[in-house]
Amino acid sequence: MRTDLIKTAQHWNEQGTRVDAGTGGMAWWDAGPEVQRHVNKRITGDPNLGWVNYTLTNHFQPNLGSILVLGCGTGELERSLASLVSFEHCDAYDIAQRSVARAREEAGARGLYNIEYHVEDVNRITLPPRAYDAVWVHMALHHFHALEHICREIGCALNRGGRLVLQEYVGPNRFQFPERQKELANACLRLLPSRYRRVPAAAVEQRTQSSSTRGMRWLASRMADKAVEGDLIPALRRQLSAQWSRLTGRPLEKTRVVFPTPSSVVSVDPSEAIRSAEIVQIVEQHFDVVERKDWGGNILQFLLKDIAGNFASGGDEGQAFLKMLISIEETLLDSGEFDSDFAYIVASPRH
After folding, report:
1. Can you spell out the DSSP letters for 235-267?
2. What is the pTM of this model?
3. Phi-psi sector, 306: left (phi>0), alpha (psi -120 to 50), beta
């Protein structure tokens, strides 16, 4: 378990470094304003109104007392909150030391001295009773395995009238999606012209470097896993194609939506989606859900990985193709073809 914590912290320290370098978004499926507008509309009903602003307006008074952020990373959420609402104090926790250092530095640069950062394993957290008016968790709860313990601690730590706010991945553990969902994502990829399937050079560089920096032992372990899973030859072809693209400068085209195996997820981050499919059920056991919005991501998350930026740079045509993909996902979701992989939840403690 200690080894897993170290690996998780290392992974998120690296992610924080990529954000600082301005290259992290190349691999993120929700890059680009149109995807954000889609998510906003599913949650708030207004494509121009984000979930944080919506939550503050609909669930809180103009001023907050003390707040808590779990899985804060480099601190974007609490800095955003500070720009929108007054709060007396904020405690923010994360296991990645370098990410927390970056968050602390950014907060200090903006004069936000009422934010206190803690490097700690949230799975083992002990919170003071009745200490917070709001607990915010943004895309972090699916990294925690001690969900029952964390929910009990949050419930005890919230004041009367306080709220737990989640913006979260709640889909299958370790991203093990149904075959039907994978087929639909690949069908959507095949609808796109090749120019919208090109992987940016920075994302290719990031992909090829990530393997080399982890060392030969990690690479040998991954190849053994791929052999067991029957994916060794396709994995080698993908890696060689990326290396060839990096060396020659020729565009790398995304020809298949590749979904990870459990071992490939764990090899990068042992905490990733460890009990994600249980989140909603466990939250409902410990809290009264005040509001819940299921907003999808089932098709778009892995389909748009690496290529989302192409649509933002494609002008009106690019936006038309992106809207087509969004419409397909919404139709499948609203028709009950599958359960939403992401959810926005506001809940109150049972005191």
Report:
1. HHHHHHHHHHHHHH-PPEE--S-PPPPHHHHHH
2. 0.91
3. left
